[in-house]
Structures are given as C-alpha cells and as structure tokens.
What we know:
The structure is a single chain. The chain has one domain (26-203). Helix content is 65%, strand content 10%. It has helices at 3-24, 44-53, 55-89, 91-97, 109-113, 123-147, 176-181, 184-216, 225-232, and strands spanning 29-32, 35-40, 152-159, 169-174. It has a four-stranded antiparallel sheet with strand order 1-2-3-4. α3 (55-89) crosses α8 (184-216). The longest helix is centred in the first third of the chain and has 35 residues, at 55-89.
Amino acid sequence: MNFVAIDVSLLVIFVIFISIFLYIKRKNLKREGLLFLYKTTWGMRVIDKIGKKYRKTLNFLSYISITMGYILMGCMLYLFGKIVYIYIAYPSIVKAIKVPPITPLVPYLPQAFKLDFLPPFYFTYWIIILAIIAITHEFMHGIFMRRYDIKIKSTGFGFFPFFLPVFLAAFVEQDEQSMDKSSPFNQMAVLAAGTFANILTAILFFGILVLFFTTFFVPGGHNLTPILIRQFH
C-alpha cells in the first residue's frame, strides 16, 4: 500500500471519529458565524498554572513579543505592498506563475489544479502541522491571559460546516469584559502572544532539523583537496 492510500484512509478514519465524537458531545457544539465551535475546558488547568507560576518571565517576554509583533506587522505591510506592486507592474510574471499572489489555502491545491511545481499536499502532514501550530498559538494566548488575570471562558476547536468535520482551528475564548478592563499593554501582550508562540515553534523545529542533519548526514564522494594541493605544488 502506497502512502497516498494510507493518507486517504487516515483522512476517512479521522472524519468518522470526529463526526461520532461531535455527535456524542453535540451539547458543547455551538454555531458562531460561519464556524461550528466545540467548547470545552481542555488545558485550562495547565494554562492557569503556567500563567500564575512564571509571572516575571512572562512579563519580560511580553516586551519581546509586542516588539516582534510590531516588526512583523511592518514586514507584512511591506511584503503586501511589494506583492501588489508586482501584480500591477509585472502581470506577465503572475501569468507565468499561474497562481495569484494572494490566495486562500485550499487542501490538495496542487493535485486539483495540476500545479506540478508546488509540493503535494497530504492530510497526515497537514493535520500534524496544524495541530502543533494551532495548539501552541492558542495556548500562548491563554497563558498570557492568565498572567494578566484575564478570565478564560472556554477552550476548544472549530471547523466550517460546509467542509468535512476536520480540525481546522483551535481557540481560547477570553471573557470580553475582563479583557476590556485590562490595560492596553496587557491586551497587546495577549494579542501578540500567539504569533510569538509560532516564532518560538519555528525556531525550535529549525534547531531540531539542523541537529538531525548535522548528526546523521554522512558526506559522500571524494575529497579533492589533496589532489588539488599536489597539482599546485
């Protein structure tokens, strides 16, 4: 059995499991706008413990996360402007690439539109990556909420009803009144925490990637240095 068959099988199993789980727990399922949200209290004890125990560390990290948030916001505005400029000034490049510079993420986009230059999309990779990114992102929001004594109403995950019941988003729901009463600095620290978590996650996994290749990579081929030295001497 090849990987594609395994990947599709895991997708089917996942959809069936989530569908049964959501049916059993349908009392916790709420419709808000375009999303269905499954609200629970998962992880709230861990969030509260970390947020209360490491107050000084989180206070220091607040300044870093807010600063990085402003820097990243400036970078995104610059890149957005650059993309719009290229889109208007060089339409031939956009036509040659065949993908608009700004597009929503569509699962199996390379396969659906026969875009051979894009890497293939697999559900197994996608769900693992999404879970790591979403959970760390939302948990960091929650940790900074508790650091600044902002109440948390619920945690959970959500999905679009017109898609398969696949885990698409995580959330930590704050109490709006508690959030509004907090100082502007505290609010900025909470809002910037998610992006800060994504940056830390990227650094961590980049370090793991470098460590893996430096540990297990074995150079191949011939060492030409001695030959070149003899030729020049």
